[in-house]
Every structure is written in structure tokens, then in C-alpha cells.
Design a protein that fits this description.
Elements lengths: L1 H12 L4 H26 L5 H8 L11 H12 L4 H20 L2 H33 L4 H51 L4
Length: about 200
């Protein structure tokens, strides 16, 4: 209980900006967790390329899985017609429909990571305004009343940076993973198109 109380006291000392900053942090980490789970599902236990080729050729496959290649092949086999040219277009269409899944919420995560230090800066300005209001009211003779505004400014800045730095790093990492999965999808399409009959 002591840790939570300390965190709550720290959040209170950061001023009103800590509320939107906490909301930004919660939303950003929720979206990051969703992307990590999705990417894990798309890469773990995926269908091998030979099995994908067999499935595209109409041969039975024991286990598809939930990976990127498996999802593509499952969607394609459900829609294929048996006419080679049309089936190639269906395969390309299945890949096009999968692409938004790879990049979903990545721009939102990056935006939230960029907003966090700005909210921290807003807290800094708010804390400094409070400090100058105290100075104008009672002067600089007593440092204790000044500490509240300075504390608000520093805590808000620190919190903004603590949210932004890992958020932006993970946003870049997730974007790279999405890019790699997109290339993996392109390579899979190129291989499978040659085996559509």
C-alpha cells in the first residue's frame, strides 16, 4: 500500500496535467499491448511455405494456425474459384485486406508518445505560473510556498518524459515489425502466385 500511496502523492503534486497525462499513458500502453499480442499471433506457429503451397494447390493441410501466412491461405482457400487468373486476383485481394491489420493503431501510438512530453511541458508552465503567483503575493522571503509550484512543474515534466520515451521507442520497434511482416506477406504472395492453378 505504501508504494501506491507514494505514487498517488506524486501524481497529486504534478497538478491537474497528471489526469490527461495518465489517460494518454493508459491508452498508449493498451494499444502497445494489443499490437504486441497481434504481432505475436501473426508470427508464432505460422504455416510453413511448403504447406501454404500445398493448400493453394488444393491439397489438404492438417493445421493452419493463426499466423500471417496461415490467415492468408485460409482466406484464399475459402474464396478460390478454380480459375487461375481469377484466383491470383483473389489471392492479391486477400493480402490487401490483411495489410491494415499490420499497421493498425501504430500512428495513434506514435501520436500519443509525442503528446506526452507536450502535456509535461504544459504542466511545467502551469507550475511556473503558480510559482510566480506566489512570488507576486508574498515575495521571495519564504521558500516553502514556492516549493509547490516548482514541484508541480518538475513532476509534470518528469512524468511526460517517462511516458514519452518508452512509448516512442516501442512505437518505432512496432513499426519495424509491421514493416517486416508486410515484406513477409509480399514474399509469400510472390511464391504462392506461381502455384495457383
Amino acid at each position: 500500500m505504501g508504494l501506491w500511496q507514494s505514487l498517488l502523492d506524486l501524481a497529486r503534486s504534478g497538478g491537474w496535467v497528471m489526469l490527461p497525462l495518465s489517460a494518454v499513458s493508459l491508452l498508449m500502453w493498451t494499444l502497445i499491448a494489443e499490437r504486441m499480442i497481434t504481432f505475436r499471433q501473426l508470427t508464432a506457429g505460422d504455416l510453413g511455405i511448403q504447406d501454404a503451397v500445398h493448400a493453394v494447390q488444393g491439397n489438404p493441410v492438417n493445421h493452419f494456425g493463426n499466423g500471417l501466412r496461415a490467415t492468408l491461405v485460409r482466406n484464399y482457400t475459402r474464396l478460390r474459384t478454380g480459375e487461375a487468373e481469377l484466383d491470383k486476383r483473389i489471392l492479391a485481394e486477400c493480402a490487401i485486406k490483411m495489410r491494415p491489420t499490420l499497421s493498425r493503431n501504430l500512428s495513434v501510438i506514435a501520436a500519443l508518445g509525442s503528446v506526452a512530453p507536450l502535456l509535461g511541458l504544459l504542466g511545467t508552465v502551469s507550475g511556473m505560473i503558480a510559482t510566480f503567483n506566489v512570488i507576486s503575493a508574498i515575495g521571495t522571503g519564504n521558500a516553502r510556498p514556492l516549493a509547490g509550484g516548482i514541484s508541480e512543474a518538475l513532476v509534470a515534466t518528469e512524468a511526460g518524459l517517462l511516458v514519452a520515451i518508452p512509448g516512442l521507442l516501442l512505437s518505432a520497434s512496432l513499426s519495424r515489425r509491421a514493416h517486416r511482416l508486410s515484406h513477409h506477406l509480399d514474399r509469400t504472395i510472390l511464391v504462392l502466385e506461381h502455384h495457383v492453378r
